[in-house]
Backbone:
């Protein structure tokens, strides 16, 4: 039974491995883009005085 299943799955091994590798690369690129965006916001915040500005001060002034 297991040998039959292995023989059936063998042709799908390479495309599945390639698909998995592409998804890993896509995830890594997404994490990289997010890190660059967070870094850019931090740099912009530091250049603007180091404190986030709000449109309204809220209930605590």
Residues:
């Amino acid at each position: 039974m297991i040998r039959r299943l292995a023989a059936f799955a063998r042709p799908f091994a390479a495309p599945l491995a390639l698909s998995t590798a592409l998804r890993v690369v896509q995830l890594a690129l997404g994490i990289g883009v997010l890190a660059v965006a967070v870094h850019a916001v931090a740099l912009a915040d530091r250049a603007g005085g180091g404190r986030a500005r709000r449109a309204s001060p809220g209930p605590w002034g």
